[in-house]
Amino acid sequence: MNKKPYYITTPIYYSSGSFHLGHCYTTVICDAIARFKRMDGYDVFYLTGTDEHGQKVQQRAEKAGVTPKQFVDRLYEQITALWKKLDISYDKFIRTTDEYHEKTVQKIYEKLLANGDIYKSEYEGMYCTPCEAFWTESQLKDGKCPDCGRPVTKQKEENYFFRLSKYQNRLIKFYQENPEFISPRSRMNEMINNFIKPGLKDLCISRTTFDWGVKLPFDSKHVAYVWVDALSNYITALGYLQDDHAKFDKYWPADLHMVGKEIVRFHTVIWPALLMALDLPLPKKVYGHGWLLFGDDKMSKSKGNVVDPFFLADRYGVDAIRYFLLREIPFGSDGAYTNEALLVRTNADLVNDLGNLVSRTTAMITQYFEGRIPAPNAYTQLDKELITLCEATLDKVRKDMDGLSAPDALTDIFKIVQRANKYIDETTPWTLNKQGNTERLATVMYVLAECIRFAATLLKPFITETSNVIFEKLGVNSPEDFSEITKFGVLKAGTKVNKGANLFNRIDVEKELKALDELAEKQNSDKNAEQTLPSDLIDINDFAKVKLCTAKVLSCEKVAKSDKLLAFKLQVGDEVRQVVSGIAQYYQPEYMVGKTVVLVKNLKPAKIRGVESNGMILCAADGKTVVFVTPEKDIGSGKEVR
Ligand code: MSP
What we know:
- The protein is of the alpha+beta class.
- The strands form seven sheets. The chain has a six-stranded parallel β-sheet, sandwiched between helices.
- The N and C termini lie far apart (74 Å).
- 5'-O-[(L-methionyl)-sulphamoyl]adenosine binds at residues 11-14, 22-23, 25-26, 51, 230-231, 259-260, 262-263, 291-292, 298-300.
- 5'-O-[(L-methionyl)-sulphamoyl]adenosine is lined by residues 11-14, 22-23, 25-26, 51, 230-231, 259-260, 262-263, 291-292, 298-300.
């Protein structure tokens, strides 16, 4: 059977800093949707990646003393490690420095130019470098960038422009005909009132003030505006304008661009207009989710309020983090992160509800039926209530996920878990056991095991690791799809369960909060201590790499055709070494013979003016003269200097 394609994307992440829990929000949500759709029979393509060009990257790389490519390579390693840790199941990772992407962006510019959508003109505007966005004076908030609140600078350039204004009416018409395109609805009004109604201005789509970007094919002094470069990733990744475009043919237009609310504007105004200009169909939906807040502020590196996802995942487990992000924050709105909320949520849902249900059930099957799931007998009205709930949940969850609401989906799945826990209290299996009512006890155990199977199957897209562990405990394979949760009664009697360890361990919230506070305090004081040190300090291990020793000059002569160089033969313990030094202007060769110098012994050999040099003689210099360094007393050659 041909599966229906489903194309879902995250924004591509800026490679300009480290990554925090806020960044994980978009990606984890998309991952849950992608996994859900796969299990629900779709042919899913999930794309994520990194946004690696632009002035900001160039500036940060300069500051770090590395090339922009080295800089983005490092962040690429970091983010892919993060996604691995969080079990993100993307089908492709695109980097905007990938050659195929850069070439296709050039083709896109050529196409826009050929269609008359690009022209050259002078531009003056207020530019926010961190956001890579131009603003008009009236859009500024207190003279600062309306998105991030940081200062803007006036920039004037001769540039290429995209005729965005030409698409204003077509955009409005498209929104009207596709009221679901911008979601949630409130964001649609925001776009129309704040951006479209005041009138769309043509968009400056090239830059000359820096060069870390895609060079324009028709004018190599200019690089592509990072947002055009970045937005294009959604189609270049599929092979658009490339030899192999099978994926583009299959998956475009995208079913869902999931983005944070601050970048809805780029995705619902600029991106559709560019696609119209390229004569391509528009994505079906752009969803602008809310922010993960820390205190009252967006969690962001520049605000210094970030929470490290690696730390949390190592301490509480990946699924506790995934679950928190997916369950806690009402979808579409902002939601606050606090350590307490994470711990309380983990204890309540994962430890108490899910963990308890699984451990109680597997323990009872182990105790009462030697670890084998018993065959059920006649179902009672009470059993049927649970059976109906289980069989109805997939449809409910599907509806929740169609509305992209992971919190609602999880709430519905946990209704099975909570109902099953209550069922244990209602049926009191320990009493049935005492009464020797094995027949009823068997049915109760079977119903519980099936409830767990239903819940674990539905939880697979959300808490990936835990659901697999639950299937191990149930003694059956983890299912690939939802086909076996339409009907109750799939588990085979006689299947051996494995009780094993608890799924989650209860957290002592008060104690843990204190421990986290102490850790944060320690980190802060370590950071402060680091900040008071000059940044060029090295530690003792760095110094230990340099091997210094004394050496006696056996002979010294000028290097041919050089005013500066002297060639030395040095006695270094038992060894004789040749070293070239640039001190000919300060010392006569014959003066040097018999002197003791200090030598850098483990320098890689080099050829200087064709003469091999094995080390370096230490000298002191004051800009006018140079003197060699010598031990205060004669100590012999080859002695360590430290
Ligand atoms: N590079 C652009 C996107 C280009 S897409 C063609 C970008 N990158 S980003 O790294 O700043 O953001 C990536 C995603 O992380 C965005 O969806 C953004 O909203 C999200 N988040 C970053 N901080 C966040 C929170 N504190 N909370 C929730 N999501 C946040 O924008």
